[in-house]
Design a protein that fits this description.
It contains six helices and four strands; from the N terminus they run ααβααββαβα.
Length: 165
């Protein structure tokens, strides 16, 4: 066999040799799984929105946030361009790391609902939504119950609207 023919034969690794001075890529480009090339960062606000929506989906959660933040939120919602997106994150605080997140939620519960069962349901729903959508591990969901909505209480949003008029 000539020298050139030997250089062009397949080497034991299965890659075709190209001769001196040429690099072989062995059929792969870039070095590894395309899904692992680069970083994905997720902002705290993204996780807060997901968690806020997931918490509100649970029956028995009347509102999110404490009284003062709900009042400010009602004012902000009435101002054009004032922040409908802020209402979603009201009562939610997230700390996001590279692979994990921790959440603090402040909720108002409906009267008559078991707070322990409600907290368990909120945790399950929030953890499921955040982990499914972000891929982050939720290490903890702390829930603070700031109020109970009584059946004969006037809805806070209606009360806030009247104060604004």
């Amino acid at each position: 066999m000539s020298d050139t023919a030997q250089r062009n034969q397949s080497d034991p690794s299965g890659r075709e040799s190209q001769g001196e001075g040429q690099k072989t890529l062995g059929g792969k480009r870039g070095g590894g799984d395309p899904g692992s090339r680069g970083r994905t960062t997720i902002a705290d606000g993204v996780v807060e929105k997901i968690a806020g929506l997931a918490a509100r989906d649970v029956v028995g959660v009347h509102a999110m946030g404490g009284g003062f933040s709900r009042t400010l939120g009602a004012v902000r919602d009435r101002v054009p361009g004032g922040g409908g997106a802020k209402a979603v994150t009201r009562g939610v605080k997230a700390e996001v790391g590279e692979t994990q997140t921790a959440l603090d939620l402040e909720i108002v519960v409906e009267y008559g609902v078991s707070i322990a069962d409600l907290a368990r349901s909120v945790r399950e729903n929030v953890i499921s939504a955040v982990e499914r959508m972000t891929g982050l591990e939720v290490v903890e969901v702390n829930i603070a119950v700031s109020d109970v909505k009584l059946p004969d209480d006037e809805d806070e949003d209606d009360e806030d609207e009247r104060k604004l008029q």
